[in-house]
């Protein structure tokens, strides 16, 4: 069983995907973490992020392990715990270089498919999972939310990590990421064919996951949880 969840930053994809996978007893793949890991590795090396050949070399050289934990995803890069380091605003802002470079996307798409093959049954989330990476998925979702609500969620997420940022700055960053996610020539953010659209504005994460589970049951006849 393969379930894809795509959508813009802050729509609640990561949490929803992790919880849906947990409820179904299947694995969870956070593909944003692969873009973040290569970005962090290149930043640490002091490399020019617009050099896509260099980013591809980083992907080929890096040892990345993504392990879902009850409270989130545990990320090991070259044997070091970078769970927190890949979520900083610096990495969020700079991930657009990796996301916008065709050879980098190609390499990461291959990596994501390899991880998927190893996982078997899984829920995956990102921007291009239902359109490009796993177009034959059993169920495809497209999660969205009002930009102001996405900015509020992002502020809370940052505050929980002790980072302060003002709402207007966050909103502008989110709108800029929406534009670069939707506007790039490869793997742009699109609603996949056959995807179920879910607007999470005003809904708690529990309500969202319940809705996703209901759809999975209806579409696939799956009867667990
Ligand atoms: O979902 P996220 O914020 O962790 O994603 C980090 C970056 O990677 C963001 O710039 C979008 C990009 N991304 C992508 O282009 N394709 C994916 N499948 C996942 C993430």
Summarize the structure.
The chain is built from nine helices and eight strands.
Description of the molecule:
The protein is α/β, with parallel strands linked by helices. It has two domains: 1-26 and 122-215, Rossmann fold (3-Layer(aba) Sandwich); 27-120, P-loop containing nucleotide triphosphate hydrolases (Rossmann fold, 3-Layer(aba) Sandwich), CATH 3.40.50.300. 52% of the residues lie in helices and 17% in strands. The protein has nine helices and eight strands. It has helices at residues 13-24, 32-44, 52-61, 89-100, 102-119, 129-133, 147-160, 167-183, 205-220; strands at residues 2-6, 27-30, 64-69, 72-77, 80-81, 122-126, 139-144, 196-199. The strands form two sheets. The chain has a five-stranded parallel beta sheet, sandwiched between helices. Strand 4 and strand 5 form a beta hairpin. Helix 3 runs parallel beside helix 5 (102-119). The two termini are 15 Å apart. It binds 2'-deoxycytidine-5'-monophosphate (DC). The site of 2'-deoxycytidine-5'-monophosphate has 15 residues, from helix 2, helix 4 and helix 8.
């Amino acid at each position: 069983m393969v379930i894809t969840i795509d959508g813009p930053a802050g729509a609640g994809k990561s949490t929803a995907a992790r919880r849906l996978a947990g409820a179904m007893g299947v694995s969870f793949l956070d593909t944003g973490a692969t873009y973040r890991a290569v970005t962090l590795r290149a930043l640490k090396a002091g490399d020019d992020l617009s050099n896509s050949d260099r980013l591809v070399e980083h992907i080929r050289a890096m040892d990345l392990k993504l392990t879902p934990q009850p409270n989130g995803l545990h990320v090991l890069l070259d044997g070091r715990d970078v769970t927190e380091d890949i979520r900083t605003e610096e990495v969020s802002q700079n991930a657009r270089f990796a996301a916008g470079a065709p050879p980098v996307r190609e390499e990461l798409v291959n990596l994501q498919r390899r991880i998927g093959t190893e996982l078997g049954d899984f829920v995956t989330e990102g921007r291009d999972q239902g359109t490009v990476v796993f177009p034959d998925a059993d169920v495809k979702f497209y999660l969205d939310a009002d930009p102001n609500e996405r900015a509020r969620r992002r502020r809370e997420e940052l505050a929980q990590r002790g980072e302060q940022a003002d709402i207007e700055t966050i909103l502008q960053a989110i709108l800029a990421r929406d534009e670069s996610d939707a506007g790039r020539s490869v793997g742009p953010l699109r609603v996949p064919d056959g995807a179920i659209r879910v607007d999470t504005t005003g809904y708690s994460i529990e309500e969202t996951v319940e809705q996703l589970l209901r759809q999975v049951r209806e579409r696939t006849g799956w009867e667990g949880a």
